[in-house]
Amino acid sequence: MSLQEFWDYLVLGVMLGSLYAVIAIGYTLVYGVLQLINFAHSEVFMLGAYGSLIVLQLVSPGDNPSVMASIGFVALAMAGSALFGGVTAYGLEKVAYRPLRRRGAPRLIFLITAIGASFFLYNLAGKLFGRDPLPLPEMYENREIFSLFGAGVNITQLLQFATAVVMMVLLDLVVNRTKLGMGIRAVAQDAEVAGLMGVNIDKVVSRTFIIGGVLGGVAGFLFANLNQVSYTMGFIPGITAFAAAVVGGIGNIRGAMFGGVLIGIVETMTVPLLGDEWRSVSAMVVLILVLMFRPMGILGERVGRAA
Amino acid sequence: MLNKTIVKLAIPLAVGALALTGCGSDSGGDGDAVKIAFQGPLSGDNVALGENMQNGVKLAIDQANAKGDLDFTLEYVPGDDQGLPDKATATAQKIIDDESVLAVVGPAFSGPTNTASPLYAESGLVTVSPSATNPNLTDEANGFTSFLRAVPNDNQQGAGMATYYAKKVQAKKVYLIDDKTDYGVGLATVAEKNLKDAGIEVVKKSVPQKTPDYSATAKDVVNSKVDALIYAGYYQDAAPFAKKLAEAGYKGAAISGDGTNDMKFVELAGDASENWFLTCPCTDATVEAGTKKFAEDYQKAFGRAPGTYSAESYDAANMIIEEIRKAGGDIDRETLRDALKKASYKGLTKTFSFEANGEFKGTDVYLYQVKGGKIGYQGNINELVG
Amino acid sequence: MSTVDTSQNLTPSAAAKLRRTAWYRTERYTRLWAMIALGLLLALVTGEQGNTRDIFYSITHTLTGVNLWVCLGATVGVWALREFAATPIKGAVSAARGSAAAAAGGPVGSLRARFQADKRLRLGAYAVLLVLVLVVPSGLERSWQTVLVDQIAIFALLAIGLNVVIGWAGLLDLGFFAFFAVGAYSTAFWTGRLPVEPPVVLNNFWVIPVAVLTCLVCGVLLGAPTLRLRGDYLAIVTLGFHEIIYLVAKNADGITGGPQGARLIPDFSIDFAGIEYTWSIKPLPYWYLLVFFIVLVIILFSRLEHSRVGRAWTAIREDEIAAAANGVNTVQFKLMAFAIGASTSGVAGVIFTSKYGYINPEVFPLLQSILILAYVIFGGMGSIPGVLIGTAILVWLPEALKDWVDPSDRYMYLGALLVVMMIYRPQGVWPSRRRQRELKLAEEGSGDADATSEPAGGKN
């Protein structure tokens, strides 16, 4: 691999990784407050993609929209995906997890519920929207806009990366600077004591799900923009992003960002080195190696303490 | 409290139902109806393909019934194997147990064909697969005596692509991708061998289905400085890949097989699909009058355009119906099997006849090219390379 | 965040205003909104199939059709009944329950007591059950025999194995099906059906011990470095392990045959002391074989459950640190659970492969590991009859649903069933008594119900 190729793949890896990071945050946030692997997060992601598709089909951008129109379409699609993602996550929490939480059910029960909800949601989406993949209508003409270390970056990639960064910065601000963020951290540290201190736990959990859902939904839009929309699109990125969250240290927001980018780079670098078919394997090997030597993930610990 | 009662009642009920479905479902007794079954993925990840095929079969049956020249009614029986080998045996057995099923269209995939065919062979129930293309299936050692393949196997198309690149495009170096499915790997293996025999350098890679991001692969294609590319896989993945290839600035020739030869490929990939070559063992499905009518009827019946293997399934079902009609509806499974083995039927897509081992007779592969958002017919590959 | 300090500067009337809830937020009406939402969802679930040509087709159809009103009527009706006629219904139900209990409670209770007291009676009941299990399937339609053998029995064997790992030792294993794949590919290898030649070609019966050994080794190999991880970390690592096994099977074409798989794998056969028999594609002979293995495994495992090993597992599951402090070698016992579970899986893999005669990687997707876990929990983890029932129901259900609903919707209903079941009966269909007690303790806030509730990263 020449140096130029290395830069090419590195840039691609970071772009893909930023997407994984956004999904991973959804897992990590929920884990932080509930210590629950939300297996249904991949369906939140999938429904987010459908949200943007629906909005775009309603406004139907024609050929060659102007720059301003393009920005508008992107914003609309993003809003659609955020809405779908947020609503799905909220509904999930309300219907599937809250009754369990009220009863203090063990986490294994949550896990099976999450799996059941995931089955339900993706099959429902397949039923409602058809089971063939669909393209996202073109919102702009994708072309290379600048180059980074000689590697070209196009609009789609920039959009993906920039959105991811903006969302992560916003999230960091929310968690660290707002009252809601304080609540999230408090619940993550010790839900019982937080409740005694006057934090409305139900509200915090529910809003955490919404935040995670919005992030997941927008990630779904970005992913659809990169690839396409289909009802089974959630599974593979979901598992990968979950692995990324664990590599970074589950429950830890910055860990999820770091893990996402790392896994993205590892996967992309596998393509020229070993071949495309081994990319998931290399991601999983990295996961296992990291956990063998750092059982708490690279950055370790949880929302409450680390973020 | 109420919940607990419900559950307490529900368990014995569920257990009872479990026993009942086992013993009590003797629904195969309605005398004069002749049933044709379809086995393929009607749930799970590959359901889109299964639905295409199921609709083709349904349309054939409905049209035959509507014509009114049959002295029996045809019925359709769905058999869902999810495209998985481990689910196929129960599905096949269920079809076999229904005495009035005389023939099966399917199994759709090669894996399920492998596990279900011994059962079909034992029962003498003929299966006509419009899409299982793994060359091994007609190996005599399998003993799949009631398997008929109504589609040329992977060998033909793989060879066709290689010939076209060698003789017409005169490629020096070809990037060959399979999608890690049975279909894709089979096609790619044959293509690789033929390309190498023609003295062409081959870069062979595998890119599994549903790869989240094709950018890196596209970059790799460009970096390999090849002048032609073969994608052996289905349109669902060929489309995003084609997009990324266009973005990465790939300028060479690209070709794919019948798994991609579908308008949905063009719809999904948009401009990026322009100039892609597509092969198919089928002749053009939109040019001839008969096929045009098929497309219209299909659209009317199911509210969508026919997809991959729709027309082939339609043909297979019609071929079966034709043989049953010849016998006036009164025919047993074995006789029908033997009749079909010897049959020669001219369908929409091609003329069907079979070798002794159930292999499709005929080696013609046709070339298409995407031009201006349409899949344009180019002609028989053997004639094109002249 | 509810604000704690706002009430300070408020006049009493303003405070009263704050305390009052609008009518639509009272509990009764929140329930109504929930029921309406449920009705809407129900209408969508039972509505028409959509298509990609027009993605709004299904939704618009549902929202303008009759079905919506039927569903809404049903759910709102339930709400109305519950809100306004709750007392009479409750009375009727409790009366019915009372009479039912009076009628059935006595004899059933005493029967159970006698059962527990009398060992011979218990053995007799087991014998009757076994005879039923052996005889009844021969009366079924052959397609149900096939479901019973090819799916239910195979999965039952697997579920019993997973039950050891998760139900008894409390280790969350999301990659259990990978061992099944190892067993299956061992069979293909030792019967000479993979691209790589085995040193000797073995009869399928001889493959069983070899496959068990291979799975044991794999179990230990996976377990040794990862068992110090706990709970969720173990889950993701085992999940990763499964993904790796699956992808290796798929990608290492030269060794495993790749996506085209291995075919022509022979059936079981005996040629011993004058008895010659070959199992064929007929389901019943395989049924007897599977019942033999299942019974064998059940006997072995239930002895294990009440031995020192079983008690050690319980101790680890309920409180690992306390167990370690009391001198239980936790790593050794955890490894043992892993290896025993894995080897059961290996047996299932061998039988499966011989029965089908063909495998490809698509038989072993990650989803299967998740499904099998659902079977165990659904049935009631820790209890062997529960696990068997759970497997039977959840494997049978999708097959039976084929006749009632659009096949492509089956797994949607399965998913919904899982969610509902976990909300209303988390202990499973037939829970073990110990497990029920643990769940209750956990709900009351004392004690752990599984080893997964440790803090992330473990307590080492």
Walk me through the topology.
The complex is a heterotrimer of chains A (307), B (386) and C (460).
Chain A: H1 3-34, H2 41-59, H3 67-103, H4 107-129, E1 144-148, E2 151-154, H5 155-177, H6 179-189, H7 191-196, H8 201-226, H9 235-248, H10 253-273, H11 279-293, H12 303-306
Antiparallel strand pairs in A: 1-2
Helix pairs in contact in A: 1-5, 1-8, 1-9, 1-10, 2-3, 2-4, 2-8, 2-9, 3-4, 3-8, 5-6, 5-8, 6-8, 9-10, 9-11, 10-11
Chain B: H1 2-24, E1 33-40, H2 47-67, E2 73-80, H3 85-97, E3 101-105, H4 110-123, E4 126-129, E5 147-149, H5 154-169, E6 173-178, H6 182-197, E7 201-206, H7 215-223, E8 228-232, H8 235-248, E9 253-256, H9 263-269, E10 277-280, H10 289-302, H11 310-326, H12 333-342, E11 345-346, E12 351-352, E13 366-371, E14 374-380, H13 381-385
Parallel strand pairs in B: 1-2, 1-3, 3-4, 4-5, 6-7, 6-8, 8-9, 9-10
Antiparallel strand pairs in B: 10-13, 11-12, 13-14
Helix pairs in contact in B: 2-11, 3-4, 5-6, 7-8, 8-9
Chain C: H1 12-19, H2 27-46, H3 57-64, H4 66-84, H5 86-117, H6 119-135, H7 142-168, H8 177-190, H9 204-226, H10 231-251, H11 253-256, E1 262-263, E2 269-272, E3 275-278, H12 283-305, H13 308-318, H14 320-325, H15 330-356, E4 358-359, H16 366-379, H17 384-404, H18 410-424, H19 433-444
Antiparallel strand pairs in C: 1-4, 2-3
Helix pairs in contact in C: 2-4, 7-12, 7-15, 7-16, 7-17, 8-9, 8-10, 8-15, 9-15, 12-15, 13-15, 16-17
Family (chain A): Belongs to the binding-protein-dependent transport system permease family. LivHM subfamily.
InterPro entries (chain A): ABC_transp_permease, BCAA_transport_permease
Keywords (chain A): Amino-acid transport, Cell inner membrane, Cell membrane, Membrane, Transmembrane, Transmembrane helix, Transport
